[in-house]
Amino acid sequence: MIATTSRPVPADHPVLPALLSRPYPAVMGVLNITPDSFSDGGQFIAPERALAQARRMIAEGADIVDIGAESTRPYGAQPVSAEEELQRLRPVLGDVVALGAPVSIDSMKSAVVAWALGAGARIANDVWGLQRDPDMARVIAEHKAAVIVMHNRERADPAIDIIRDIEAFFARSLGIAARAGIPGSHIVLDPGIGFGKTPEQSMTVLARLDELREFGLPLLVGASRKRFISTVAPSEPHQRVGGSIAAHVLAALKGARIVRTHDVSETVQALRVAAAIEERR
Q1: What does the alpha-carbon distance between residue 56 and residue 77 come to, in Å, rounded to a whole number?
Q2: Which of 73, 122, 197, 226 is catalytic?
Q3: Which residues sit opposite 125 in a β-bridge?
Q4: Residue 2 · residue 25 · CB < 8 Å
Q5: Which residues, 6+ apart, have CB-to-CB distance to 79 below 8 Å?
Q6: Is there a catalytic annotation at residue 73?
Q7: What is the pLDDT of residues 171-225, one digit of tens each?
Q8: Does the annotation mark 155 as catalytic?
């Protein structure tokens, strides 16, 4: 069934246990306050629209709101300074935190993460898995925050065994976390669908996701509207809801405990129905 009896449930982080103890994965709703995100860039950069979208996602069943102020799309994203990220976040983050759902900050900059955690975010979502900014692990440890450690590569290499590469990457990240004093019970692993991977490798990761349960840590999958879907069924990002749901339901069956999505209502419904059906086995 979707919820396996062996799933890890961290005991001492104030946010994670409730999210991970149900018979279906928690749903993380994506809130991009950027002009250039691959799927919805520019739609929610105005603070009032960002807050309305956060309210909508929570009403639709989002358990976490993941807010990012710099596009981290794998192809063609324009880097921005920490100050520019903060300028986008300051008018929005506090109001989103006040809605009551746990907030994660999607940033690869420790200065941005430190400010966001100080402003009420509970989770740091680092697309470079603590391996890009040398201060990231220390900041997260000092705030006693949860962290999503995502696998990434500078470029895709179709010749490698992508699962073995992810395992090695996670081992390095977990070493960094341990040295900084981040408890294992505060860590979620994300194999980084679409990041530093060919479309075929992204599908391989989903097919072999259960191999990553060897780390004994919760897994997050973010396949929402990703490019690999278009290689199977040609489509633009906003036309990939069906493919996203298919990927997330299969990920749940293979052990994912959190899914990250742009399409909250549809994903919540699919995961809950799949879990209900699996319970009849």
Answers
A1: 27
A2: 226
A3: 106, 148
A4: yes
A5: 70
A6: no
A7: 999 999 999 999 999 999 999 999 999 999 999 999 999 999 999 999 999 999 9
A8: no
